[in-house]
Design brief:
230 residues; alpha/beta; 8 helices
Length: 230
């Protein structure tokens, strides 16, 4: 529990203990909360928005989310929209108004634990995916035809022997890296794929690396549609 009013903190602790929860610690500041989360690894943090010290509860929750992956439920007497909008940016797992209702709190904790479990599984999946990409000497790109936007990851840039900041996601820059004799066929193959709305395409072609040498790549594209009516 992170609460700077001792009477309120004691009341909350008594309620939770009586309901069968184990309160591992009660602190009054953001700095202490960050330290205790690191040491104790609690399942859930109850965070008051107004706190003593240099950080308020919203700033503290943002730090915990980014560094510890522990779910935070805001517990506050502030119900104004400005506080809610600030709190929302930190991606909290719940937002309760004092005094807490135990039934509502139980639901918030259950949902927070479930959402955090899913979040951790997504992080682990992403890590395995990135390992597979590196091991398979692959890179990932994404193209939005309507907006003419192109995105690539650092693994793809490395295949062309570029560092992270040496190659932008400008489509013209990437097109220039296609070997000159393969550009027309590459362009027609890709455009036909988009026009036909095929599910996937695969095209092997030559590319220019950063040093001007020529290499071979296989572009394997999958089509994802946000709106099937478009």
């Amino acid at each position: 529990i992170v609460e700077d009013e001792q009477i309120v903190a004691k009341y909350i602790e008594k309620q939770l203990t009586g309901a069968g929860y184990e309160v591992v610690d009660v602190v009054t500041s953001g700095d202490k909360a960050i330290e205790k989360v690191r040491l104790l690894s609690p399942d859930v943090v109850l965070m008051d928005i107004k706190l003593m010290g240099s950080m308020d509860g919203i700033e503290t929750a943002d730090h915990i989310r980014k560094n510890n992956q522990v779910p935070v439920i805001f517990l506050t007497s502030l119900s104004d929209d400005e506080s809610f909008q600030r709190a929302k940016i930190t991606e909290p797992f719940g937002y309760l108004i004092k005094p807490i209702d135990l039934k509502e709190f139980n639901r918030a904790v259950e949902m927070a634990l479930y959402k955090n479990k899913i979040y951790k599984e997504l992080i682990e999946t992403k890590m395995r995916f990135e390992i597979a990409i590196r091991a398979g000497n692959m890179g990932v790109w994404e193209f939005w035809p309507t907006e003419k936007k192109y995105f690539s990851d650092n693994n793809l840039k490395a295949l062309y022997h570029f560092n992270e900041n040496e190659l932008t996601d400008n489509l013209d820059d990437w097109s220039a890296l296609v070997y000159k004799d393969d550009r027309e066929l590459m362009s027609s193959t890709f455009n036909n794929f988009l026009l036909s709305k095929g599910r996937e395409f695969k095209f092997e072609h030559r590319i220019y690396r950063k040093d001007g040498s020529v290499g071979w790549v296989v572009d394997h594209g999958l089509l994802f549609e946000a709106d099937k009516d478009k």
